[in-house]
Structures are given as C-alpha cells and as structure tokens.
Amino acid sequence: MSINATLIGQMITFALLVWFTMKYIWPPLFDSLEERRKKIAEGLAAAEKGQEEMQLAEKKAKSYLKEAKTQSAEIVSLAQKRANEIVEESKDAAKKEGERLVLAARAQVEQEMQQAKDGLRQEVAKLALIAAEQILGAEIDAAKHQDIINNVSNQLG
Amino acid sequence: MATEAHAAEGATGYIIHHLTALRVGEGFWSLHLDTLFFSAVLGGLFVWFFKTAADKATAGVPGLAQSFAEMLIEFVDTQVKDSFHGHSKLIAPLALTIFCWVFLWNFMDLFPVDILPLIGSLMGIDYLRVVPSTDLNATFAMSISVFFLIIFYSIKIKGVWGFTKELTLQPFGPWLLPFNLLLKLVEELAKPISLALRLFGNLYAGELIFILIALLPWYIQPVLSFPWAIFHILIITLQAFIFMVLTIVYLSMAHEDH
Question: Which sequence ranges form a coiled-coil region, renumbered to this chain (chain A) (predicted)?
Fold first, then answer.
C-alpha cells in the first residue's frame, strides 16, 4: 500500500481528463441541452400564442359573420323596396299607356263615326232624291235643287 | 518487484497475490503499471464515449448515446447547481469526470476476480490488480488534485489575505490564533484524506470479499458472489456519487466568502 510515483501519474491523467472534458465534452453537450430546452420553451410559447390567436380569429370571424348578416338583410330589404318601386312604376306606366291607347282608340272611333255619318248623310240624301223623283215622277234637276238637297242633308246631320 | 507476496502460499498467498500491484521501480519512484494502465483505459473509454456523443450532439431529437450522455450531464449539473451557487466553468466538467471515472474504476470490481489476472498471467504478467480504486495512489491522486483546486479557488476568490484571515481568525477570533490555525489545517487536510480513504476503503474491502468468496468451493461461490455483486452495484455508484458531491461541496465552500 505504498504511496509512490503512481500518484503523480494518476494526477496527470486526471488533469488531462478534466481538461478534455471541460474543453470538448461538457460545452457541446450542455449547449445542445440548453438549446433544446429553449426550443421546447419557444414551441410551447408559440403553441399558446397560436391558441390565443385562434380564439381571436374566431371572435373576429363571428363579428364578421354578424356584420355580413346585417348587411345582407339590409341589402335584401333595399332590393325589396326597389322591386316594389319598379312594380309601382311599371304599373303607372301601364296605366298611362292604357289611357293613351284608350284615348287614341276613342278618337279613331269618333273619326270613323263622323266619316260613317257623312257617308250615310250623303247616301240618305241620294236616297231621298231618288225617292222624291219616284214620288214626283219627274226628274228633279239636281243642279236646280241643290239648295234643297243641302238643306235636307244638313237636317239629317 | 513486490517480494513480500512471493513467500506466502495457500489462501493468504492467493489474497496477497490478488491485492499486489504490478510494480516497476523501487521506493517512491516506482509505478503501479496496472493502476496506471486500467485507469488510463477507463478514462479513455469515458472520454471516447462522451466525445462521440458530443460530436453528434444536436438540439433536435437525440440519439441513444447522446441521451445517455445528456442524462449524466443533467444529473451532474443538478448536483452542481444544488450546492454550488457561483459561476465556474470548471466545476461541472470536473464533477462529471470524477463521477464517471470513479464509477468506471469501481466497475472493474464486478469483473470476476480471477479473469483478468488469468489473462495477464497468460501474457506473462505476474501481478495484476484490476481495480484502480483499490490503489491508494489512484484515490489520493484524485483527492489531492481536488485539494489543490480547493486551495487555488480559496485564494482566487478570497485573495491571499482573505484566505489567511479565514485560516487564522475563525472560529474563535484573533486571540486564539494558533488554535484556529490548527483547527483549520486539520479541517482542510481532512478533506482529501477522507475523500481518498473512503473510496479506497470501500472498494478494497469489497474486492477483498470477492476474493474471499473466490476461495470457497465453486458450488457456494455463486450464492454469495451474486448478491454481493448486486449490492456492489449500489456501492460503486454510491461511492462515485459521494466523491463527486463532496468535491462540489468542498469547492463551493472554497468559493464562499465570509
């Protein structure tokens, strides 16, 4: 159990081992541990943040949806109003057109009636003349009795 | 060579033979080749394993070797952080080296006591003591290195004057200066001696019991050596742990300024 120079040799070996560990072994392994720890912490933080953001986005989406709903309701009511207006307008237009058509038809009818009256008047005058000829048995001079004919036809009108 | 071992025969001779180191040289300037060789090989093993792990170290998913190395690193780092509150680049790697190296030394204890000496004798080596921690030189080399570090850090942190004051003025004040100095010297010197002798004693005794078991008839041996080996797994880890923790504690004491 003698203490001898082995002690010195062992101390040198020990010093070398400690130096090597300190220089080449501890730092990289410890750094990788620290880095991983940081990564995990970052990942957890990111996950939390993501969740928060999701909640926020959900809230936002809800509010957007609400807005869209009210907007669409507005649009629909506006469109209905507009449609009613259009219907009213077209109704008015149709009424006016109809009235116009009726007026035109009435005017035409009157005109045609006038024409027919005129025609009939002349026809009647002619007939009266013929009838008078028959009755009188003599020829009536149309030129001579123009005044009478005119008078009669005027009375007929 | 260790002449005292040659004389005895039988059981005593067997025991002495197993506990004799392979020694060259005479007097103080002699070397225990087996201690030097095995501790260097084990140190190389430790360094090689950790270096491979460190070279491949990533912050991503670690491999098996890296996981194991990181587990030890975490373990040592926790111990250091628990008792040492300063900032030092040396202490944690030092503690890791001590823990792993002492563990590997002690682990040699679990090899069957005859196998490596037998291989040695086939190679023409007469004496082979395979457990470095059963050599006082090995345990004292480590504890004295730690002792030097304690002195070094005491002076570095507190200054020569501060360290001198701590040695002389505590615990009883300036009027009992010689007594204080004596107490402090005993306290400081007890650190390396207790560190070395604790490890040496545990492992020496453990090895001795393995050797004694090996002397029994072969059919009894497993019954005894198996539980003793299992118990020893605890012992070798515990001793390595104690050496490491005490080193950390001593060095943190050296760092504390009163």
Answer: 47-74
